[in-house]
Design brief:
The protein is mostly helical and 338 residues long. It has one domain (2-332): ABC transporter involved in vitamin B12 uptake, BtuC. It is built from 14 helices and no strands. Helix 3 packs across helix 12 (265-277). The protein starts with a helix and ends in a 6-residue tail after the last helix.
């Protein structure tokens, strides 16, 4: 009996080590590679002894590559874990992190900021505020029948998302086609090109949201059985839904406000995690965080190195991620699909 226990402990330790080391590895890769070539020695020296390397190397590593890599890691982890949480709460494999109209609400906020205030810091502020407003409106829309269920929440999110999508179209229509409309279009494609350390303030709500989901991950296993079954087992369904949905919405709102709309990660990364480790949310939630962070850092690295002009990361995620997902789906024969 001791040997299987030791084997299980070894597997758990290996999984934990992989979850921690993989994002660190991709973070280092983001620092070593870029459009401006730097010797490995200069990158390492810039990290350990910055005063011993030229100013160009210090600026490239600390001011350009590091904040982008950190932002990409937080955004990828947030979108992936919120998608996994929503899929478990709503018991729907087609649900993504933007199901409650978060992305459309954030898009409208960004449009208002660009058209009315010229963009800048107002873009991040307005997109975050309107993303949360979309979640609140989705909740109230789902309570029209006075009984909030997963179905009414999804319907409420669909209605609110369509409403904000119409508002976005209006803002595009009245935007200046030469100065404002290109900025709106580029924001919806997703990018980390203008990210600096000040934008990493959004990592605070992302971390809070991910922590809320992480602490509730065992409850997600109960919720995925259905509301009646969860209540019969003694779970406070409404409170748990509020914590998980609130944490996932906070993650998504903060992520979208600094990266723009990136719709692929929250839908597919959790399914890749299920193919690898199964449906247990106690493992799936941390695995989704790690995979999402690694995938987004890799996409950001490719977006700034493949061509002379930076490729919008939302486009690159779909172009590269979709064939990889189809390959993985075929190799695992569907895996553990929910």
């Amino acid at each position: 009996m001791k040997q299987p226990a030791k084997t299980k402990q070894l597997r758990v330790a290996t999984l934990i080590a992989a979850l921690v080391l993989l994002p660190v590895l991709f973070l280092l890769l983001s620092l070593f590679f870029g459009r401006y070539p730097l010797p490995v020695r200069d990158v390492l020296s810039a990290l350990v002894r910055p005063q011993t390397v030229p100013l160009t190397a210090r600026v490239t590593v600390w001011r350009l590559r590091l904040p982008r890599a950190l932002a990409a890691a937080f955004v990828g982890a947030s979108l992936a874990v919120s998608g996994a949480a929503f899929q478990s709460v709503f018991r729907n494999p087609l649900v993504s992190s933007g199901i409650l109209g978060v992305s459309n609400g954030a898009g409208f906020g960004a449009c208002v900021a660009i058209v009315c205030f010229g963009g800048g810091v107002y873009t991040y502020l307005f997109s975050f505020v309107f993303a949360l407003a979309a979640v609140v409106l989705s909740w109230f829309a789902g309570r029209i029948s006075r009984v909030t269920t997963t179905i009414t929440m999804i319907l409420g999110g669909t209605i609110v998302g369509a409403f904000f999508s119409a508002l976005v179209s209006i803002m595009k229509y009245i935007a200046d086609p030469y100065s404002q409309l290109p900025g709106i279009t580029f924001w919806f494609m997703g990018s980390f090109s203008s990210v600096g350390y000040s934008h990493l303030l959004a990592a605070v709500p992302m971390a809070v949201g991910m922590l809320m989901i992480f602490l509730s991950r065992w409850r997600l296993n109960v919720l995925s059985m259905g509301e009646r079954e969860a209540a019969a087992l003694g779970l406070d369904v409404r409170r748990c839904q509020f914590l998980v949905i609130g944490g996932a919405s906070l993650c998504t709102a903060a992520a979208v406000c600094i990266s723009g709309t990136i719709g692929w990660v929250g839908l597919v990364i959790p399914h890749i995690g299920r193919m690898l480790i199964g449906n247990n949310n106690q493992k799936l939630i941390p695995v989704s965080m790690s995979l999402g962070a690694c995938f987004m850092m890799l996409m950001d690295l490719l977006s700034r190195t493949l061509t002379g002009a930076e490729i919008p990361i939302g486009i690159l995620c779909a172009l590269i991620g979709t064939p990889f997902f189809v390959y993985l789906l075929k190799k695992t024969k569907g895996g553990n699909w929910t």
